[in-house]
């Protein structure tokens, strides 16, 4: 029996989107930059987008799946003031308080 490993990523932010092409071989991310961020997915990993803000990385090699998910997350890690960015679905981001006005 082959074990499948999953890693779900959630994109939080206005206008942030993800889409896949070529049967999960290409991942395109719109993250508020002037360009679209493009990822070519390694052979051991498959990528699906259920909604424009949920990415699922899956495969039979746990290390490669997690490494790819970490690479995707690193282009826009969660930000502590507003909570925007790419985070794992089970990740909790502790929000910080902004500057206090007097």
TrEMBL record:
Organism: Musa troglodytarum (fe'i banana)
Record keyword Ribonucleoprotein present: yes
Annotated GO MF terms: rRNA binding; structural constituent of ribosome
GO biological process, one term: translation
InterPro entries xrefs: Ribosomal_uL6-like (IPR000702), Ribosomal_uL6-like_a/b-dom_sf (IPR036789), Ribosomal_uL6_a/b-dom (IPR020040), Ribosomal_uL6_bac-type (IPR019906), Ribosomal_uL6_CS (IPR002358)
Keywords: Ribonucleoprotein, Ribosomal protein
Keyword Manganese annotated: no
Descriptive protein name: 60S ribosomal protein L6
Domain Large ribosomal subunit protein uL6 alpha-beta per the UniProt entry, residue ranges: 14-88
Sequence similarity: Belongs to the universal ribosomal protein uL6 family.
Top-level taxon in the UniProt lineage: Eukaryota
A single Gene Ontology CC term: ribonucleoprotein complex
PROSITE patterns (UniProt xref): RIBOSOMAL_L6_1 (PS00525)
């Amino acid at each position: 029996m082959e074990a499948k490993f999953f890693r779900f990523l959630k994109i939080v932010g206005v206008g942030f989107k993800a889409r896949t092409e070529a049967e999960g071989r290409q991942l395109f991310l719109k993250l508020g930059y002037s360009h679209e961020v493009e990822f070519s997915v390694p052979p051991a990993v498959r990528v699906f987008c259920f909604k424009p803000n949920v990415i699922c990385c899956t495969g039979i090699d746990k290390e490669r799946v997690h490494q790819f998910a970490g690479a995707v997350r690193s282009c826009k890690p969660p930000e502590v003031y507003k909570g925007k960015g790419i985070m794992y679905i089970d990740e909790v981001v502790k929000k910080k308080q902004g500057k206090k006005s007097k």
